[in-house]
């Protein structure tokens, strides 16, 4: 049965507003090994979305949340693509979007951040801020996104809490406002004081740590008696926080200037309920979306959504292409016929799916903040808008600054047609950015990627799907700058630089060997237009 836009809109707008209000759509930003998988599992477990640890995201079986869509992915044991995980917690629906990026990074990692309203910055208590976390944080910062900080692995020896807070403030200028405070040093973790009411949650490990830790709530008096000197030390530190004014401030949190901090340990499930409660209380529900012209579409307006990720071959049995859409406004009902804003063509949603773990289940209705996966979506590209009348189109998702470049050629020149088709498709899907120039010619485009693994994906898909085996030759460039037509000839003539056109949007990019070379170029050519691309690059 198909439903028209009008019928859908006649459903009480109140329902859409209420459903949107109880949703929280977020992602975890972290460096590999900080504990993202463990935290994901702990959140799901704690929220009782699943019954036993390991079922969703066990280290030994990552296929739970991520999808085993390619042999390559399995062989490497990493997640190339991401999925959305829905966690019901009381009355709240938590949509956790996975940011892929274990040993590697890709544009997908960044694009996911364009589809969330909040991020959890996950830090390893012994390591503090690490490179990948910093890169991802830059993207959050560029969008003024609210960030909640979770300092993980508190059960192991690590750094001093005050030192970690200091690092956050000094290095990224994010003012930390701890919500809880650890009792006992990292490695001898006793429990957490809730700064809001001074109550103490004593934590007792359960054997194996696979199930929820036993959390015992004590009054400050009881806690002082049980923990002795350790308690005194923790309360003294906490008083210090009061003096420096590290209090939660919702306005600056929402502006991405301050960050509520929680200490805990995902593996033994310490402090996970506090994190869930913080998401409910502080993380923002989906806002009314703003379109490309800067106009706000009410959250209860008819359906609109934006594709933030494309994925192919999720399931070997169905050679399809999936579009992941974040709902921006309105109620989605399976079977609705939507309009694809870029082409004006209708798009049927009969086979829409929700993605939970490796299971694909059919979704019947969904609301703002939810992610739906549309199958047979070859016509869609990252950034595209789908809507039910009235028309709306959202601003494109920015492409990120590539740091890896390679020339791509068809091994067999007789397969040039297949080669061209594959390049066009992978470009449209946003697997890599395709750059061309008259100098290099159409047969040898330059591929630009955020992470080198994207090239492996290209090679694999070109051979498997498009029947065009390719050769990739890495280029010795590490950064790109945007230029204009007037500056292009001069930029192209520079040594250690080259100008290419980005196929997707026609932007002219200057590729440069490294930042030292760039510095010299800028110094010696003050008139040249060389603008940085968006966050994510080494610049
Ligand atoms: P990811 O790479 O960020 O997904 O990290 P994982 O979740 O796979 O965790 C990396 C390692 O850290 C694994 O061996 C986890 O068991 C371990 N780990 C994660 N959280 C904790 C924690 O709270 N305490 C301790 N001791 N180990 C943890």
TrEMBL record:
Keywords: Cytoplasm, GTP-binding, Nucleotide-binding, Protein biosynthesis. GTP binds at residues 98-102. This is Peptide chain release factor 3. Increases the formation of ribosomal termination complexes and stimulates activities of RF-1 and RF-2. It binds guanine nucleotides and has strong preference for UGA stop codons. It may interact directly with the ribosome. The stimulation of RF-1 and RF-2 is significantly reduced by GTP and GDP, but not by GMP. It is found in: Cytoplasm. GO terms for cellular component: cytosol. CDD domains: RF3.
């Amino acid at each position: 049965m198909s439903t028209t836009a009008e019928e859908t809109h006649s459903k009480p707008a109140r329902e859409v507003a209420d459903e949107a209000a109880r949703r929280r759509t977020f992602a975890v930003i972290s460096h590999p090994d900080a504990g993202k998988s463990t935290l994901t599992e702990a959140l799901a477990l704690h929220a009782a979305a699943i019954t036993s640890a390991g079922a969703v995201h066990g280290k030994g079986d990552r296929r739970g949340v991520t999808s085993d869509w390619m042999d390559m992915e399995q062989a490497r044991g990493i997640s190339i693509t991401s999925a959305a995980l829905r966690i019901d917690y009381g009355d709240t629906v938590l949509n956790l979007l996975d940011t892929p990026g274990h040993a590697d990074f890709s544009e997908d990692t960044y694009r996911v951040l364009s589809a969330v309203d909040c991020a959890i910055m996950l830090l390893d208590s012994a390591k503090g801020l690490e490179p990948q976390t910093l890169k991802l944080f830059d993207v959050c910062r560029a969008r003024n996104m609210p960030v909640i900080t979770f300092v993980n692995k508190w059960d192991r020896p690590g750094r001093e809490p005050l030192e970690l807070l200091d690092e956050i403030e000094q290095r990224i200028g994010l003012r930390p406002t701890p919500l809880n405070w650890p009792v006992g040093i990292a490695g001898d973790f006793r429990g957490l004081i809730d700064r809001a009411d001074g109550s103490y949650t004593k934590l007792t490990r359960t054997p194996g740590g696979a199930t929820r830790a036993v959390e015992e709530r004590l009054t400050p008096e009881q806690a002082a008696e049980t923990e002795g000197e350790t308690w005194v030390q923790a309360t003294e530190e906490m008083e210090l926080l009061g003096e420096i004014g590290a209090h939660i401030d919702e306005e600056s949190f929402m502006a991405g200037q301050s960050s509520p901090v929680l200490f805990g340990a995902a593996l033994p499930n310490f402090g996970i309920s506090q994190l869930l409660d913080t998401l409910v209380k502080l993380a923002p529900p989906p806002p009314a979306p703003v379109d490309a012209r800067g106009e706000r579409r009410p959250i209860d307006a008819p359906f609109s959504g934006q594709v933030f990720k494309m994925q192919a071959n999720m399931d070997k049995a169905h050679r399809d292409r999936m579009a992941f859409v974040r709902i921006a406004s309105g109620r989605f009902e399976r079977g609705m016929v939507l309009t694809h804003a870029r082409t004006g063509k209708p798009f049927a949603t009969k086979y829409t799916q929700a993605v939970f773990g490796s299971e694909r289940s059919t979704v019947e209705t969904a609301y703002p903040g939810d992610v739906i996966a549309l199958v047979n979506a070859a016509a869609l590209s990252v950034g595209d808008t789908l809507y039910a009348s009235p028309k709306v189109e959202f601003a494109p998702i920015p492409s990120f600054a590539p740091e890896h470049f390679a020339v791509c050629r068809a091994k067999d020149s007789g397969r040039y047609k297949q080669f061209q088709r594959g390049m066009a498709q992978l470009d449209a899907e946003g697997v890599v950015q395709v750059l061309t120039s008259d100098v290099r010619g159409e047969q040898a485009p330059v591929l630009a990627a955020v992470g080198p693994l994207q090239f492996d994906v290209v090679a694999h898909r070109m051979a498997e799907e498009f029947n065009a085996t390719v050769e990739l030759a890495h280029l010795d460039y590490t950064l790109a700058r945007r230029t204009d037509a007037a500056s292009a000839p001069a930029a192209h003539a520079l040594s250690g630089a080259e100008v290419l056109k980005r196929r997707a949007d026609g932007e002219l990019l200057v590729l440069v060997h490294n930042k030292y070379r760039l510095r010299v170029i800028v110094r010696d050519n003050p008139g040249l237009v060389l603008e940085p691309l968006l966050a994510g690059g080494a610049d």
